[in-house]
Design a protein that fits this description.
The complex is a heterodimer of chains A (341) and B (564). Helices cover 67% and strands 1% of the residues of chain A. Chain B folds into two domains: 207 residues, 3-Layer(aba) Sandwich (Rossmann fold), CATH 3.40.50; 258 residues, 3-Layer(aba) Sandwich (Rossmann fold), CATH 3.40.50. In chain B, the strands form four sheets. In chain B, strands 6-7-8-3-9-10 form a six-stranded mixed sheet, sandwiched between helices. Classes of the chains: A mainly alpha (341), B alpha/beta (564).
């Protein structure tokens, strides 16, 4: 509890790299309701990811399995017994399909978001930094893509790429590319805006003055500073990617049930069941979509709030006395400066 | 109603008693104000001075109850018997404007651009009429706004009351802000760095206005500033703050004549004083004229393109000068004079549009980045804001080594060694190479910035306001270092600043820029001691010196100069 330590201790950023990771650092500086939101989001997202990774262990049957050693599965069986969440009209086990569906969703998210981040970031950097006619053309294209309803673009892409439906990887790639096309303008715009802002910063100008090339300035000086907001867009886009994928599947542009499990497709097939009182075929895939999107959105929104010092809640300052002087480092530096005069 | 009467009978307009303010931050609690007690008498100007982080602005904001939610304050701030810290929000709203008003630092952001100034002044009048149950008609509010504008010396207030903020100059905007503060005749005005954003000639006018307010209306003023010249010019009593504590309190005359505390003495010694410690002391002719000319401008013109249909803006208009090897050329001017534009043009950051600018025999008029790049290693550049001129993601070592890596492709070990050498020559430990820019103080960063500019041993260094973002004590250290390194390395330097006293300390040869034209150049001692051009005379007369008696004499002299 020293209020004035003579030795200045600076925290070494490399030693605490783990605490500086996007989500971890956000968790550390959150309090109260904001921490609750973040934790809920993290738990939901964690369950989603674990389910996807451990699908072969968790799921009692394969996604396209309609029979086992005891013979064929009964159709439209209510939850309970051998089939925890019941079976569909085609005889698939609902629980297994939901679990395997998580895997499909993760694959689509990863492929789609990785592709759109790469292309979007590179285009945004170049467009923002070089400017001129290239910038104008790219912005117009991005605007044009924005103007399309995203699902419509996704449908067109799905048809162009795979003729509507296809195998596991064909389906995943088709869905991922269609989502990519819709998302690139988002990354492009964010990175371009940041690049234009950073371009006028003195540290970029100081790099120009020493004669750094454009490629060096973009890669070394702008890139890392422009990508701070990416974790946020990533989480928000991931949830949107799931919705787009589910929408595609629901409309019939998804993946064949024999190639992979897909929540949207299952929802579509469950439509006819609702009128006959069979709820389990629709509720479980639907819940899976809702909870996954909710989890990812909560994480994204929390990160957004925590990144903004004005929105971030803090513990109340203790009105008592004492306590370590947190500005000791800076003040010691100033003191050293003054006394050396 | 005279707001100067204190019901408790202490006779003070403001009474601060054992004030403590604590902020909750990510890094734990910060004690911004530790234990401050002071009082302000009617008609008194009390200056609170201190460097950044001393808690002076937090103290000022507490007086108006403007602290953010993350702050917790204890103690008492009494204004006319009301404790601002504990009163209800409704009561606080009544106190603000009626008993105490605030003048902010930046007049262009303190005014709302989409309303007329008359409306903004009348806003306070209307708000308070509402609180007491009455209503003020639009006509009456306007006439009171006109009165307020007349008080602060805005010419033709009947018409200008309907103007928008952008139609006023910076100094006039600050007058409008003061008019708004005066609208309800408060007994106390808190002015937080009221002249920091203004040019020195405008600053003199605003200080005169504040003095008139005190003399004519008996308004008390709490003046928050870091500028010792402003303090000497205006304040009756001075409170020196350091790291949240009051270090010393005395009348202005006593404080400047015989400061008691060590810190106050250091602070006063660090303030650059025009005419003392001049670099051109004892020189009779311009030095270094036998050496090679590095920069030669002949009728240099730089024009920024206007919008479609409107003519462009001439930032630099027919400027001619030379800069020889080993010479320090000081370029002085107020904002908009084109001094920064010239510096940036020499570094190839701005394009020239007319005349001739030769940098190391390269004609900048037809600048091609590819052909100019080899010359860049001969030019170093120090930027104004040391915090912004380093890439926050790279270590100091990486930043300083950047020019070396671009131009000579050294091994990592070589680069490290050279960075270490340079850091030591700017008096930073070589181990600082592993730190990140945010872990250094402002002065340390600016030294690292100097190290980066010098790592390739350039022939020419351009320093654009290198000390204006620094505290005065830090500025003194950095200036001293700059002087030492310049004589050791022997590079030529173009030193750009708005502060005459700072330029005089470093420069052998001084040029004064006014609205894009170089109105005067000569030896530092000559320009400062015997200015030829009207503008230079005005500039020097407006500069407040940190000595109340001398400043009072200078003020009289400058008033007669402006009148005559």
């Amino acid at each position: 509890m020293s209020t004035d330590s003579p030795t200045t201790t600076y925290k070494d950023p490399r030693a605490s790299w783990f605490r500086r990771l996007p989500v971890i650092s956000h968790f550390n500086k959150s309090v109260g309701l904001q921490r609750g939101m973040l934790v809920t989001g993290l738990v939901l997202t964690g369950i989603f990811l674990l389910t996807a990774v451990l699908a072969p262990v968790i799921a009692p049957y394969g996604f396209s399995q309609i029979s086992d050693a005891d013979g064929g599965f009964p159709a439209q069986q209510a939850p309970g017994g051998k089939h925890l969440w019941g079976t569909t009209v085609g005889g698939y086990d609902v629980f297994s399909r939901v679990v395997w569906g998580a895997q499909t969703a993760v694959m689509v998210i990863v492929v789609a978001v990785v592709m759109s981040i790469f292309i979007g970031v590179i285009l945004g950097l170049v467009s923002g930094y070089i400017g001129g006619w290239l910038d104008r053309i790219l912005v117009v294209i991005a605007d044009a893509v924005y103007a399309f309803p995203s699902l419509l673009v996704a449908i067109v892409m799905a048809i162009v790429i795979s003729g509507g439906r296809s195998s596991l990887w064909g389906g995943i790639i088709a869905a991922a590319i269609s989502i990519t096309v819709v998302f690139i303008p988002q990354y492009f715009r964010v990175i371009r805006a940041e690049t234009i802002r950073l371009k006028a910063e003195p540290f970029v100008e100081s790099a120009k003055v020493v004669g750094a090339s454009n490629v060096r300035i973009m890669s070394r000086h702008i890139f890392k500073n422009a990508t701070r907001t990416l974790p946020l867009i990533f989480t928000l886009n991931a949830s949107e990617a799931i919705l787009t994928l589910a929408g595609l599947g629901f409309l019939g542009f998804g993946i064949e049930p024999t190639s992979a499990a897909e929540w949207g497709f299952d929802l579509n097939k469950a439509l006819a069941d609702t009128t006959s009182g069979i709820w389990w075929t629709g509720v479980f895939p639907g819940l899976a979509i809702v909870l996954t999107v909710l989890g990812l959105t909560l994480v994204g929104e929390s990160i957004n709030d925590l990144n903004d010092p004005r929105l971030r809640g803090r513990r109340k300052a203790a009105s008592g006395k004492g306590g370590p002087d947190s500005t000791a480092g800076a003040q010691a530096a100033i003191r050293a400066e003054v006394s050396s005069s | 109603m005279s707001p100067n009467i204190d019901p408790r009978g202490t006779g003070h307009v403001l009474d601060i008693d054992h004030l403590r303010v604590t902020f909750a931050t990510d890094a734990g609690d910060v004690y911004a104000v530790k234990d401050v007690s002071l009082e302000v008498n009617p008609g008194e100007v009390v200056a609170i001075v201190g460097e950044s982080g001393s808690g002076k602005t937090v103290t000022a904001k507490t007086i108006l109850g403007l602290l953010p939610e993350t702050a917790i304050s204890s103690g008492a701030v009494l204004i006319n018997g009301n404790n601002v810290i504990s009163v209800s929000p409704a009561k606080l709203r009544q106190i603000r404007g009626r008993d105490v008003a605030m003048v902010f630092q930046e007049p262009s952001t303190a005014l709302n651009p989409v309303f007329t100034v008359g409306w903004q002044i009348a806003e306070g009048i209307r708000a308070h009429a509402h609180g007491t149950g009455g209503r003020v008609s639009a006509k009456e509010a306007k006439s009171r706004a006109i009165d307020a504008l007349r008080k602060v010396g805005i010419p033709d207030p009947e018409n200008r009351v309907d103007y928008y903020p952008h139609q006023f100059s910076g100094g006039q905007k600050q007058r409008v802000v003061i008019a708004a503060a005066l609208a309800l005749n408060p007994g106390l005005i808190v002015a937080d760095e009221p002249t920091t954003a203004l040019d020195v000639t405008v600053q003199a006018e605003i200080l005169q206005l504040l003095r008139d307010l005190r003399d004519k209306y008996g308004t008390s003023i709490v003046l928050i500033t870091h500028n010792m010249g402003v303090v000497a010019d205006l304040a009756d009593r001075v409170v020196v703050m350091y790291q949240g504590d009051v270090v010393e309190e005395a009348t202005a005359k006593v404080l400047f004549a015989e400061p008691k505390q060590e810190y106050t003495r250091k602070l006063l010694a660090a303030v650059p004083h025009l005419g003392r410690n001049s670099a051109s002391e004892g020189m009779t002719a311009r030095a270094h004229q036998d050496r090679k000319v590095l920069v030669e401008a002949k009728g240099l013109t730089i024009e920024y393109p206007g919008r479609l249909g409107s003519p462009g803006f001439k930032a630099v208009d027919g400027v001619s000068f030379t800069l020889s090897e080993g010479e320090v050329f000081g370029l002085v001017g107020e904002s908009g004079s084109g001094k920064t534009t010239i510096g940036r043009a020499i570094a190839g950051l701005n394009r020239t549009t007319g005349g001739s600018l030769k940098v190391l025999d390269y004609e900048m008029l037809n600048l091609k980045e590819r052909t100019f790049k080899p010359l860049r290693k001969e030019i170093g550049f120090v930027f104004q804001d040391p915090a912004a001129s380093f890439n926050p993601q790279l270590t100091i070592g990486d930043c300083v080594a950047e020019p070396l890596i671009i131009h000579s492709n050294p091994t990592p070990a070589q680069a490290r060694k050279r960075v270490g050498e340079l850091l030591e020559s700017v008096q930073l430990p070589a181990s600082y190479a592993d730190r990140f820019p945010h872990e250094l103080s402002g002065g340390q960063r600016q030294r690292a910035s100097l190290a980066r500019a010098l790592i390739l041993n350039p022939k020419l260094l351009i320093a654009d306001e290198p000390t204006s973002a620094l505290d005065v004590s830090v500025q003194a250290v950095v200036l001293e270092l700059f002087k030492d390194i310049q004589s050791e390395f022997g590079f030529a330097a173009l030193f750009i600043s708005h502060d005459l006293a700072v330029v005089d300390i470093l420069s052998h040869w001084v040029g004064v820029l006014y609205k894009g034209k170089l109105v005067e150049q000569g030896l530092g001692t000559q320009v400062m001691g015997n200015p030829q051009h009207d503008y230079t005379r005005r500039l020097i007369a407006s500069l407040p010196v940190p000595d109340p008696d001398e400043q009072a004499r200078r003020r009289e002299a400058s008033r007669s100069l402006l009148a005559g």
